[in-house]
Amino acid sequence: ILALITSSMTAPVLITVGALMMANVGKVDFTYFSNTASTFAIMIMTVLTYSISEGISAGIIVYVLCRVAEGKRKEIPILMYVLCILFMLHYLII
After folding, report:
1. Are 38 and 63 in contact (CB under 8 A)?
2. Which residue has the higher pLDDT, 24 or 7?
3. Residue 34: CB partners within 8 Å, gap ≥ 6?
4. What is the pLDDT of residues 7-17, one digit of tens each?
5. C-alpha 7: how far from its chain's center?
6. Which residues, at least 6 apart from 25, have a Cβ–Cβ distance to it below 8 Å?
7. Using 50, 70 and 90 to split pLDDT, how confident is the model at 82?
8. Alpha-carbon distance 29 to 37, whole Å?
9. Are 60 and 38 contacting, i.e. CB atoms less than 8 angstroms apart?
10. Model pTM score
11. DSSP secondary structure code for residue 48 in this structure
């Protein structure tokens, strides 16, 4: 059954998700580089990989790395560090 689902069937869902993401771009606080960079990474990676989960994982990695580079390590929750490490391992293994 899963083999019957083709890209022509998933494309409308991705277009809808993209439209919903673009509607919320105006609500992003662009005063912080980490917010801007992670938002951009999520949108670009979602489009390039055709995968929402890949986009979100790239956004988490970029967000954590930017916040660490800004010197705001203590403001990042532990779970974000764990997710960042797991996603980086995922990308390095693949």
Report:
1. yes
2. 24
3. 62, 63, 66, 67, 70, 72
4. 677 778 878 87
5. 21
6. 39, 43
7. very high
8. 11
9. yes
10. 0.77
11. H
What's the CA gap between 68 and 71, in Å, rounded? 5
Q: What's the token pair of residue 19?
A: 């439209």
What is the C-alpha to C-alpha distance for residues 82 and 32, in angstroms, rounded to an integer? Answer: 22
The Cα 39–Cα 44 span in angstroms is 9
Q: Which residues, other chains included, contact 29 with Cβ-Cβ below 8 Å and sequence gap of 6+?
A: 35
User: Token pair of 28, please?
Assistant: 């992003």
How far apart, in whole angstroms, are the C-alpha atoms of residue 89 and residue 67? 19
Q: Which residue has the tokens 């580079």?
A: 69
Give the per-residue pLDDT at 4: 67
pLDDT, one tens digit per residue, over 32-79 is: 888 889 988 988 898 888 788 899 999 999 999 999 999 999 999 999
In the block, residue with structure tokens 């990989």: 49
